[in-house]
Design brief:
Layout: E1 2-7, H1 11-26, E2 30-31, E3 40-45, H2 50-72, E4 78-82, H3 83-89, H4 92-96, E5 102-104, H5 112-124, E6 131-133, H6 138-146, E7 156-160, E8 162-163, H7 174-178, E9 182-183, H8 186-198, E10 203-207, E11 215-217, E12 223-225, H9 226-233, E13 241-245, H10 254-262, E14 269-271, H11 279-285, H12 291-304, E15 309-316, H13 323-336, E16 340-345, H14 363-386, E17 392-400, E18 406-411, E19 416-420, E20 429-438, E21 441-446
Parallel strand pairs: 1-2, 1-3, 3-4, 4-5, 5-6, 7-10, 10-13, 14-15, 15-16, 19-21
Antiparallel strand pairs: 8-9, 11-12, 17-18, 17-20, 18-19, 20-21
Bound molecules: S-adenosyl-L-homocysteine, iron/sulfur cluster and FE3-S4 cluster.
S-adenosyl-L-homocysteine is lined by residues 48-49, 171-172, 174, 209, 246, 248, 273, 275, 313, 315, 344, 346-347, 349.
Length: 449
């Protein structure tokens, strides 16, 4: 059958979707780039904020009418919901959308081909019961994924090394949708990275909900920290760039800073979500660091690696956030001057502690604060980008642009950059002189050797 996967949410879902493509392709199905061409629709969902949940149900409404049209023409059509909404809502999805054939939780994606076979069998026998898979066993997921092939990949890829979260920040659904923290064995990670590099991947971003609390079994039988794994990854022939995301500030230690100092292919860019600049709010969020500790952590990394730049996540309007707390967040942003940042209005999620807290902030205030913060963060990002004009930067080209001979890539700091040059191909890494800034991306010309 022909399948289409719609991906929502974070990089981990992108990785999971890539693995589902591997598995379904090996089972003889064919990936399509558009829903209209497919007869298996897979929604790999995100539950981080309420809007993400709502998006699924509006997309499902559309999929339902297409499914009924296909079925009216006498063909078969299957709808599967995977990912974090699947894990959080399980059978409740069937209650709200009974035309969904299967719900597959975050740690069951390796069973996707079997699930589809089961649905096909049930349809053949005219059985209409839906299939539900929602066990949270991360170990067995990665055991199974180990043996699957890696098919087509881009030049820059994600590789999950750690999944799940034990931190229980009071606003967050992830510990409930991804389960407890699990670190993969270093050997399996390195083998998978080598497979990726052998089919042309140049840049790998190691993924984990708390990637810097990685503690997997090393190739020497000892427990390795993230820094040890980074050194081992740097030994892989042909791997040109290495990144890792997302780090929790409470787990940043000097060995990570040393790795940044020592490893050439490790990009000098770190995503370090701070969430708030108020100690009172950080405490209520259960983040386990203070603003002072956060700032010291940035200073420590800059001391080891002076050209290091940072990005961050912010939440505004957390329950009890006063004008003063918000001012403190602005002050912190002003101090660090992030190269890039994401900011969100606090969204209450059922079953999380913060949803039950008093003093929820009115929507109007959240919107006002978000606008003020985003204006500031945008200015900082523009300032960072403008500082690169006239400089030469290292770029990995990952796709073609809209114009003739235009190629688009990423700098070491993950800035989008485009050039028009016939001598450059996708997958090339080249030095580029930055000539101008266009909204959030850079424009440059390739420096000839
Ligand atoms: N593990 C990462 C974050 C994963 S979620 C970490 O600890 O930083 C990505 C981002 O979504 C978070 O950093 C946070 O800023 C935001 N987020 C999570 N839950 C949210 C909620 N309930 N409302 C608004 N934003 C939220
Ligand atoms: Fe969510 Fe906190 Fe875990 Fe990040 S560390 S995934 S924000 S609970
Ligand atoms: Fe969303 Fe789940 Fe990722 S909630 S952000 S897809 S871990």
């Amino acid at each position: 059958m022909n399948f289409f996967i719609k991906n929502y949410g974070c990089q981990m879902n992108i990785y999971d979707s890539a693995r589902m493509i591997d598995i379904l392709s090996a089972a003889g199905h064919k990936e399509c780039k558009h829903l209209d061409e497919a007869n298996i629709f897979i929604f790999n969902t995100c539950s981080i904020r309420e809007k993400a949940d709502e998006k699924l149900f509006s997309d499902l409404g559309r999929a339902k009418s297409i499914k009924f049209k296909i079925q009216d023409a006498g063909e078969s059509c299957i709808i599967v919901v995977c990912g974090c909404v699947a894990q959080a809502k399980k059978e409740a999805i069937f209650n709200r959308a009974p035309y969904v054939d299967a719900v597959v939780g975050t740690q069951e994606i390796h069973n996707i081909a079997n699930v589809i076979n089961e649905v096909i069998e049930k349809k053949k026998n005219n059985e209409y019961s839906n299939v539900l898979m929602g066990v949270l066993n991360t170990k067995s997921k990665f055991e199974a994924l180990k043996t699957t092939n890696i098919t087509e990949r881009s030049y820059s890829e994600y590789l999950t090394i750690q999944e799940g979260c034990d931190n229980f920040c009071t606003y967050c659904v992830v510990p409930y949708t991804r389960g407890r923290e699990f670190s993969r064995d270093a050997k399996d990670i390195i083998d998978e990275a080598k497979k990726m590099v052998s089919i042309g991947v140049k840049e790998i971003t190691l993924l984990g909900q708390n990637v810097n609390s990685y503690h997997g079994e090393g190739t020497d039988g000892r427990i390795w920290k993230l820094s040890r794994l980074l050194y081992a990854m740097a030994e892989i022939d042909g791997l040109a760039r290495l990144r890792y995301v997302t780090s929790n500030p409470k787990d940043v230690s000097t060995d990570i800073a040393e790795a940044h100092r020592d490893i050439d292919i490790l990009m000098p860019f770190l995503h370090l979500p701070v969430q708030s600049g108020s100690d009172k709010i950080l405490k209520k969020m259960n983040r386990k660091y203070t603003t002072d500790e956060y700032l010291r952590c940035i200073d420590m990394l800059r001391a080891y690696k002076p050209d290091m730049a940072f990005s961050s996540d912010f939440i505004v309007g957390f329950p009890g956030e006063s004008d003063q707390d918000f001012e403190d967040t602005l002050k912190l942003a002003e101090k660090v001057r992030f190269a890039q940042a994401y900011s969100f209005k606090y969204s209450p999620r059922s079953n999380t502690a913060a949803a039950k807290m008093e003093n929820q902030v009115p929507e109007k205030i959240k919107s006002e604060r978000l606008k003020i913060l985003q204006d500031m963060l945008n200015n900082h990002q523009n300032e960072f980008n403008e500082n690169t004009v006239g400089k030469t930067v290292d770029v990995l080209f990952t796709k073609r642009g809209k114009f003739k001979n235009q190629l688009v890539g990423r700098t070491e700091y993950s800035q989008a950059i485009s050039v028009c040059d016939k001598s450059i191909n996708i997958g090339d890494i080249a030095f580029v002189k930055v000539t101008e800034i266009k909204s959030h991306s850079l424009v440059g010309s390739v420096k000839k050797k």
